[in-house]
Each structure stands twice: as C-alpha cells, then as structure tokens.
Amino acid sequence: MSKPEVVAIGTDAGSTTCKLVAVGQGGEVLGSRLEATQPHIELQVGELLGQLRSELGVDGPVPCVATGYGRKLVKDATRSVTEITCHARGVFRDLGHGGTLVDIGGQDSKVIRLGNNGKPVDFMMNDKCAAGTGRFLEYTSARLGVPIDELGRRALSTDREEPITSTCTVFAESEIISLLARGVALEAILRGLHRALVGRIVAMVHNVGLTPPLMLSGGVAHNEAVRALIEEATGERVLLPREPQLMGAYGAALLGTEGKSAA
C-alpha cells in the first residue's frame, strides 16, 4: 500500500519552540517536528522541513504556510498567516466545535472566541508583559531550579498558596527571593505563581466573553496546575486538543490545503 500523499505543510516558528506539521488531503497529520527554537529560525525551519520531506517522501513542491513569532523569516513559506487564524483553524478541526480558546505561548497569550463555523469572532492578545505567558513559567523554573515539567505537579501538591502580588516578572522575582528567605515552602510559592499567571489569563477570557466550552492550546496546556486553576476560576472544564503544542502548525497546514489568501 502506498503512503498517503502530503498536500501541505505548516510551520509555527515560535519564540520558544519551532513546530512543523504535514497533512494529507483529508487534513490528517502525516508527520511532525517539534524542537526548541534556535537563534537562526530561517536555517532551523529549513533543516526541519528537509527532514520532514525526506521522511515522508515528498519530492515535488507542496504549499508551506508559516505562522508564529518568526513566520516572516521562513524563506520556504509560500505565504504567512496570523497565529489567531491558525490556532483557531487547527483547534476547530481537532475538536469539532466553537467556544473560547486560550493559547498560552512563550512570547504572548491569546484568547479567541470561535463561532460555530470555527472562525474567530473576537480575540484579545497579551504580548506586552511576560507575566501572562509561558515565559513567566520558564523564568520561574530557572530561578527556582525546578524542571519546567514538574512545576504544575508541585504547585498542586499543597493546599497552601502564597500570593504573588507583583504584575511584573522582574518584581515577582524579588517577591520570590523574599518569600524563600522567610522560609516559605517552595510548593506554596509555585502555587501562588501559577495563580498569578492564571489570573491574568482569566481576566482576558472575561474581557473577550466566555462562550463554553473552554479550550486550551500551546505548550503550557501540558501544565496541570494551569488547567486546574483555570477550571477553578471559571467554573468551566478545560478541553485539550490531541496535540496542544502543534495546533498553530496544524492550522497553518490545513490552510495550505485550502489554497486561501493569506490572513
């Protein structure tokens, strides 16, 4: 039996991770790549694209749609599309319904209200302050010496929560240092830090208008404390697509199969 034909590839050149997804005619995922973003995004995407094409036996040209923070640097892209459009398309295709989508990325966070046709009705983006993004958790992980994939579990391991009142990552670090000096348990600090991040996200959700169901994409979707505290703050169950971190690249690839003009 012959391999399914790749008809489009999507790239999501994010500030933290670089993602590629190849899809077939029916929108099925045929292959993907995900790795930490390197300084030279153009070279990195080119190398990953070559690997993916070789793995899937792609010889001829196929549409390549770029999205993400570094989308304009992807020289192999046939066009570039906004993250809002791509995440909306990918999550709608994966979950099959509208609602309110929260995408927490490394550089920014977005809340997108999707209609029943999967198109964005309204959205809000935070790209001015790291305190409401994945960068906040990365910075915390490095500062406290806790692996980033353990932050959520450790934050949920205690009922005690030490409030973090600063709205700036730099000032939050000063609070953390002060709390540690006072002997406050690390887990209580982590829970407070997660609460601070979630508070900013939920405020954006309410500004856009919460239309259930509530969906979450991006790498931070894997953090169990973020999911749990969002559910607690909104009273809504959080739904995840199958591969939350790949939704931008997946949506870009889907747009490539449709041959629509750039958005």
At a glance:
This protein is of the alpha/beta class and 263 residues long. It has helices at residues 41-56, 83-95, 134-144, 151-155, 169-181, 186-208, 224-234, 247-258; strands at 8-13, 17-23, 29-36, 64-67, 79-80, 99-104, 109-114, 120-126, 214-217, 238-239.
Please describe the topology of this protein.
Elements: E1 8-13, E2 17-23, E3 29-36, H1 41-56, E4 64-67, E5 79-80, H2 83-95, E6 99-104, E7 109-114, E8 120-126, H3 134-144, H4 151-155, H5 169-181, H6 186-208, E9 214-217, H7 224-234, E10 238-239, H8 247-258
Parallel strand pairs: 1-4, 4-5, 6-9, 9-10
Antiparallel strand pairs: 1-2, 2-3, 6-7, 7-8
DSSP strand tally: 10
- Give the SSE string: EEEHEEHEEEHHHHEHEH
Structural class: alpha/beta
Number of helices: 8
Mean pLDDT, nearest integer? 91
Q: What ranges have pLDDT less than 50 throughout 5 or more consecutive residues?
A: none
User: Percentage of helical residues?
Assistant: 25-40%
Percent strand? 15-25%
Strand order of the largest sheet: 3-2-1-4-5
General shape: globular
Report the major sheet.
5 strands, mixed
Radius of gyration based on Cα positions: 19 Å
Euclidean distance between termini CA atoms? 37 Å
